[in-house]
Amino acid sequence: MVFKERLRAWKRSFWRLILLALGLSGLLLYGLPVVRHLEVLIPMGICPLARRPLRDNFTGPLQPWARPEVLTCTSWGAPIIWDGTFDPDVAQQKAVEQNLTIGLTVFAVGRYLEKYLERFLETAERHFMVGQRVVYYVFTERPAAVPHVPLGPGRRLRVERVERERRWQDVSMERMRTLHEALGGRLGREARFVFCMDVDQHFSGAFGPEALAESVAQLHAWHYHWPQWLLPFERDARSAAALAPGEGDFYYHAAVFGGSVAALRGLTAHCARGQRQDRARGLEARWHDESHLNKFFWLHKPAKVLSPEFCWSPDIGRRAEIRRPRLLWAPKEYALVRA
User: Fold this and answer.
1) C-alpha distances in angstroms, 114 versus 73, 111, 162, 183, 272?
2) What does pTM read for this prediction?
3) Is there a catalytic annotation at residue 290?
């Protein structure tokens, strides 16, 4: 009798916890602000390699133990770069020794050009790979409208014409095909490493060689605390971007990704191919090219992951673990720029 009572009590407690979890997950998904503040209580995990230094060709020894409140490495041994885990002076020297040219690509199509491009480029000149050779590639349907931004020594701007797509979703998805072609052409000959970024953001702090690696993924600012089962991966099994339940490591943001030219050729080929397959089936992944990017990084683990400090949304508010944001999202004025 006592056993049955205890079993019933356990079952009641179990289902209450399940209902509480479902309720909180629903509130998280629909963005209730007070729950957003509570998600910081969800632990990020502990780096299994935190007791010993990680080494990196671009940062020298990393110190994962320096940030015990956040996850500083992945299960496959890639570092997650947070402020305080690297020495920026060492990273700068390592890059200088390798005599690098670093590419930065951005698409400025339609009203995104007038609204965001000038500030993006001006702040990049102040903060992106300062002291390194940089070549900017701006893809737009209106090359003559690209603003003139004074560039420092060893820094160049290239403008490439692209066709304007009918829908903004198509601009997003065609990016991968266009990047693949550019990486196989002049961009791939000029730069050794390349970062691909969205234009509707601006630099607010040093974005330096500590971010370089063979392949680089960016933790999504809105999802880095969420449990894996809540992450917004593509779940339609018919899509080439689909991940099955239990698959996926982190949710990565397509606003920032990078790596060597060879690695990015592989990434963009994968994403463009998946988009073609979906289009042939009359499908469109939930988050467009970002869904395909997440599928790629599940199959081919990134060599380095950037913390949300490298691409932060001010709409989330202040977080103690976000010490020094490098990129800040611009306000999302979709009604204006997507009209």
Assistant:
1) 39, 6, 16, 26, 27
2) 0.87
3) yes
